[in-house]
Amino acid sequence: MDAFDFSRCFRREQGVTFRDHLMRMRSDNRSVLDIPCSVGFSAPSDFARLFRRHMGVTPRVYRNGDEPAPPRLPPGGVPELAAG
After folding, report:
1. Could you tell me which residues come within 8 angstroms of residue 36 by beta carbon, excluding any fewer than 6 positions away?
2. How far apart, in whole angstroms, are the C-alpha atoms of residue 84 and residue 74?
3. Residue 84 has what pLDDT?
4. Which residues of 3-32 are buried (b: 16+ CB within 10 A; e: fewer)?
5. Residue 6 and residue 24 in one domain
6. Together in a domain, 37 and 24
7. Is residue 56 part of a domain?
8. Is residue 68 part of a domain?
9. Which of 43, 61, 73, 78 has the most beta carbons within 10 angstroms of its beta carbon?
10. Rg (CA), the chain
11. What confidence tens digit (pLDDT) does each residue in 61-76 have?
């Protein structure tokens, strides 16, 4: 599925564009500890470990903007976050 098809499908299912959804999520002032539970992780430490492995910085550092931008995504989309 390409980005256009994804966006169209997301809007049809959610009633809001993916960009608007992201902006709403980014402006939400939830605790860094609350976010892992909202996306299906049972422990914040599991999320933090995977986030750091893939993004190069901790979630807190990323949110505060204390580090340079994370590496660009590989061609074709989002990297898989495999447990391990």
Report:
1. 43, 44, 46, 47, 48
2. 20
3. 46
4. eeeeeeebeeeeeeeeeeeeeeeeeeeeeb
5. yes
6. no
7. yes
8. yes
9. 61
10. 14
11. 887 776 555 555 556 5
